[in-house]
C-alpha cells in the first residue's frame, strides 16, 4: 500500500515540476509567446475587420436597354434602388457592355430586349437577360439575390396593375396568392463575417496552440542535437504520462482566457450574432483544448527543427478549414475527407460551437461532437505518450553514441 501511495505521490510531483517548468519554457521563448498569445489576440480582429462590411454592396452593373420604354426605365430605377446594384451606365449594345466587363468597369450586365414592354402589355411573358461575373462568389450571390428580389417586385407590380385594369381590386384579389418571408437563423443580416467568424475563431485556437507546441518541440529537438541527446531545459526524469499531462494542462490553462476572448469578446466588439450562453459553449470547448494539446505533443517526433512548425502546421490550416465543414458541407465530401475531418478536434469544435453560439443551442444537444472530442482526447493522449517515449529512446541512443 505504501508503494502505491509513494508512486502516486511521485507521479504528482513529476506532474507539478513539468507543469511549472513548461510555464518557464514558454515565458522565455518569444516565438512561443507570439503563437500562444499574440496570434489568438490579433488574428480574430484582423479577420473580422476584413469581413466587417458583412455584405457586398454597390456592385457596378451595365444596362443594355433595347426597349427604351417607360417600363424598361422603371425596371432600371428599381434595380438601381437595390443596395447590391449600382448602375454604372448604359451601353449601346451587348458587345460594348462585355468590353466594360472585360476591363473590370462592371461585374454584371442587364439586357432588356426590344419587345419587353409590348410583351407585358399584351399579357405575354417577357424575358430579361442577366450576365454576371462569377470570379467572386460573394459578389455573384449579392447580384443574384438582388435580381431575384427585383423579379418578384416587378411581377407583383405588373400583376396588381392587371388586376386593377379588370376592375377586380374590390374583390380582394390585389394581393399575391402566396407571400414568402425569409428567416435567416444564426445570421439575420446574411453577413459574411457573421457566417464565417464563429468557425474561424475556433480554428485559430487550434492552429495557434499547435504552432506554439510544435515550436517548443522543434526547439527542444535542436537543443538535444547540440547536447548529445539531452535537453537541459526539459525534465526528462519525469514519467511520460506525468510529462504529457503537465504540459497539456499548462497549455489548456493558458488558452482558457484566450478562448473566452475569441468566443465572447470578439462577437461583442464587432456585434456579430451571439445568442448562445458562455456557460454552454465554454465547457463544450474544454475537450477540444485538451485534444489539441495532446495532438500537438503527438506530432513532436516530426518536428525536427524550430521552423518545421511553419511548414507543417500552417500548411494544414487550409485543409482543416475545409474539413471543418465551414466552407463546404461535410455530407457532400467523399468518405476519406469525412473520416480525416473526424480526426481533427476543431472539426467537432466548429460544429458544436456554431450551433450553441449562433443558434442558441445547449451543451446537452451537442453530445455527439462533445463525446467525439473526449474520444480524440484519449486517443491523442496515447499518441503523445508514445511520442515522448520515442523521443527519449532516441535521445538515450544519441547520448550513448
Q: On the 0-100 scale, what is the average pLDDT?
A: 83
What Rg is obtained from the alpha carbons, in whole angstroms? 30 Å
Distance between the termini: 40 Å
Structural class: mainly alpha
H and E string: HHEHEHEHEHHHHHHHH
Helical stretch tally:
13
The amount of helix comes to 55-70%
- Give the CA-based shape: elongated
Q: What are the segments in which pLDDT stays under 50 over at least 5 consecutive residues?
A: none
Characterise this structure.
- The chain has 401 residues and is mostly helical.
- The chain has two domains: 2-52 and 191-400, no CATH class; 59-171, abc type-2 transporter like fold.
- 66% of the residues lie in helices and 5% in strands.
- The protein has helices at residues 2-27, 30-51, 70-81, 94-102, 116-121, 137-165, 192-226, 240-270, 278-298, 308-323, 335-342, 345-359, 367-400; strands spanning 59-65, 85-90, 108-112, 129-132.
- Strands 2-1-3-4 form a four-stranded mixed sheet, sandwiched between helices.
- Helix 3 links the parallel strand 1 and strand 2.
- Helix 7 packs antiparallel against helix 12, helix 8 (240-270) packs across helix 9 (278-298) and helix 8 (240-270) crosses helix 13 (367-400).
- It is elongated.
- The relative contact order is 0.12.
Amino acid at each position: 500500500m505504501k508503494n502505491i501511495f509513494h508512486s502516486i505521490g511521485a507521479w504528482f510531483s513529476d506532474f507539478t515540476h513539468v507543469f511549472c517548468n513548461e510555464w518557464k519554457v514558454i515565458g522565455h521563448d518569444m516565438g512561443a509567446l507570439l503563437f500562444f498569445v499574440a496570434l489568438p489576440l490579433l488574428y480574430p480582429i484582423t479577420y473580422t475587420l476584413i469581413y466587417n462590411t458583412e455584405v457586398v454592396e454597390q456592385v457596378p452593373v451595365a444596362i443594355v436597354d433595347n426597349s427604351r420604354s417607360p417600363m424598361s426605365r422603371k425596371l432600371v430605377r428599381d434595380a438601381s434602388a437595390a443596395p447590391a446594384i449600382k448602375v454604372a451606365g448604359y451601353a449601346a449594345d451587348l458587345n460594348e457592355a462585355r468590353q466594360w466587363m472585360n476591363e473590370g468597369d462592371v461585374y454584371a450586365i442587364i439586357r432588356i430586349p426590344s419587345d419587353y414592354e409590348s410583351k407585358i402589355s399584351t399579357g405575354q411573358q417577357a424575358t430579361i437577360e442577366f450576365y454576371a461575373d462569377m470570379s467572386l462568389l460573394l459578389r455573384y450571390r449579392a447580384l443574384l439575390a438582388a435580381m431575384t428580389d427585383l423579379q418578384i417586385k416587378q411581377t407583383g407590380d405588373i400583376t396588381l396593375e392587371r388586376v386593377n385594369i379588370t376592375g377586380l381590386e374590390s374583390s380582394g384579389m390585389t394581393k399575391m396568392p402566396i407571400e414568402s418571408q425569409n428567416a435567416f437563423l444564426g445570421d439575420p443580416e446574411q453577413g459574411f463575417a457573421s457566417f464565417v467568424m464563429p468557425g474561424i475563431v475556433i480554428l485559430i485556437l487550434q492552429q495557434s496552440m499547435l504552432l506554439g507546441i510544435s515550436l517548443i518541440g522543434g526547439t527542444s529537438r535542436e537543443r538535444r542535437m547540440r547536447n548529445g541527446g539531452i535537453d537541459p531545459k526539459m525534465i526528462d526524469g519525469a514519467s511520460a504520462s506525468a510529462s504529457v499531462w503537465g504540459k497539456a494542462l499548462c497549455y489548456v490553462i493558458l488558452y482558457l482566457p484566450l478562448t473566452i476572448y475569441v468566443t465572447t469578446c470578439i462577437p461583442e466588439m464587432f456585434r456579430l450574432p451571439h445568442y448562445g450562453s458562455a456557460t454552454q459553449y465554454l465547457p463544450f470547448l474544454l475537450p477540444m483544448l485538451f485534444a489539441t494539446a495532446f495532438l500537438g505533443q503527438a506530432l513532436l517526433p516530426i518536428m525536427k527543427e524550430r521552423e518545421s512548425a511553419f511548414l507543417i502546421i500552417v500548411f494544414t490550416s487550409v485543409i482543416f478549414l475545409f474539413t471543418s465543414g465551414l466552407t463546404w458541407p461535410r455530407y457532400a465530401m467523399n468518405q476519406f475527407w469525412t473520416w480525416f475531418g473526424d480526426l481533427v478536434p476543431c472539426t467537432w469544435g466548429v460544429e458544436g460551437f456554431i450551433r450553441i453560439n449562433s443558434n442558441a443551442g445547449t451543451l446537452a444537444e451537442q453530445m455527439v461532437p462533445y463525446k467525439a472530442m473526449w474520444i480524440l482526447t484519449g486517443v491523442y493522449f496515447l499518441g503523445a505518450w508514445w511520442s515522448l517515449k520515442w523521443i527519449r529512446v532516441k535521445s538515450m541512443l544519441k547520448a550513448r553514441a
